[in-house]
Amino acid sequence: MEKKELYLTNEEQFNIGNTNIICIGFFDGLHKLHRQIIDKTKQLAQEFNEKWSIVTFSEKVSDFLSKQHNQFQSKIIKYSNIEQQYNPDYLFEIQVNQNTISIDKDQFISYLKNNLNVNKIVVGSDFAFGHMGKGHVDDLVAAFGQENVIVFQRVSTYSTTDLKELLKDGEIEQLNEKMGQNYQIQLENTHEGHFKIIDTFVQIKNANYVLLVDGKEMIAQFDRNKVFFKDYIAKQNIIVEMIKKV
């Protein structure tokens, strides 16, 4: 997987080849609907023997505008999971800034066609793009053709908002079922046995949880997004999997 940053300028050119099948989304949390979208993109690429890419964003436009951070999972974890589980030819990350969010919907479509050589797109039904989110799935269909735009309908029970609520309530087993894998968090060592969650902006219910740490199950106490181990000391940041609340 080759990761590239995009600034949506005409000068950006990539040695992709003649065609490129893509899916587009923020994919925060990689829940089951996200996985269906990515799986379909990879399947189409294999079927037509073409390159395929995931197009995502450095942050949500709403977070950029509000100057807040609400991401459900660390970007390091998200991109690592994408590479290990799917390994697309490219992962394109659109850099969200004042210039890129000012691009209108027609310019965005033109960029997909002329700079990324896109010929097929897989998206969720609620995908919006272009200045003020004025571009929608219908615009993609008009530009690429009905047969070249595969749309997955949004399911309210498989949304990042729903996952955040489960995390807030401590329903880790239900959360993991909806994600299709154990929820992972990145922890920074503050001092012996004490950690804080980094690069993730969620509220986790104060409780004791079973975590998978270096392949071993351990119990840790969560208190206001700080994590306390009784018998574990690490000198560096770690990534752990949440198993269940106890």
Automatic annotation (TrEMBL):
SUPFAM superfamilies: Nucleotidylyl transferase. It catalyses: FMN + ATP + H(+) = FAD + diphosphate. Pathway: Cofactor biosynthesis; FAD biosynthesis; FAD from FMN: step 1/1. Keywords: ATP-binding, FAD, Flavoprotein, FMN, Kinase, Nucleotide-binding, Nucleotidyltransferase, Transferase. Gene3D superfamilies: HUPs. GO terms for biological process: FAD biosynthetic process; riboflavin biosynthetic process. Residues 19-158 form the FAD synthetase domain. This is FAD synthase. Its EC number is 2.7.7.2. InterPro entries: FAD_synthase, Rossmann-like_a/b/a_fold. The keyword Transferase applies. One of its GO terms (molecular function) is ATP binding. It comes from Spiroplasma culicicola AES-1. Pfam families: FAD_syn.
